[in-house]
Amino acid sequence: MRVEIKLNKHIRSTMRIFGVVAVACILQASIVHCGTRPSFVSDDMIAMAASVVNACQTETGVSTADIEAVRNGQWSEERSLKCYMYCLWEQFGLVDDKRELSLNGMLTFFQRIPAFRAEVLKAVNTCKRIGKYFANGDNCEYAYTFNKCYAEQSPRTYYLF
Q: 108 versus 157: which is more confidently predicted?
């Protein structure tokens, strides 16, 4: 069952920004600990993202425990977790026509936070290629591999919704 959320244009734009943070925060390698969220991830952002998070949890069947484990550096290989990550990309409007991560939204958001822009740009460019290489056309695997790489490359900008 596919759960879709219809949002007005303003909310969708705001959610796209949250999606950027979600992508930046979704993945962390087991050597990276991201128990606390970055300062730019506000309580309001988390509250606004809640409906998307709930929809993606429902769609994929990922457990809250698996999501929380990733926040603490423990990466499950569960398919549901991988597809949850891709679902977030889709729901936040971060997937382009090729069904790949769109860099424009991420980079636009981080232009507002100049201290992170160069770090994010480097991580995104590195991880997009790695994610595509290892995914072999599997969107869930692509999201998971990208995010795991991203968390290693830019742990300061990482947080899993």
A: 157
For residues 17-29, give the mean pLDDT: 42
Q: Contact 121/107 with Cβ under 8 angstroms?
A: yes
Of 103, 99, 113, residue with least CA distance to 45: 113
Residues 150, 152, 154, 155, CA torsion sign: positive
- The pLDDT-based confidence of 121 (bands split at 50, 70, 90) is confident
Q: Which residues contact 80 (CB under 8 A, 6 or more apart)?
A: 60, 61, 62, 63, 66
Domain 9-30+42-157 is classified in which CATH homologous superfamily? Pheromone/general odorant binding protein domain (1.10.238.20)
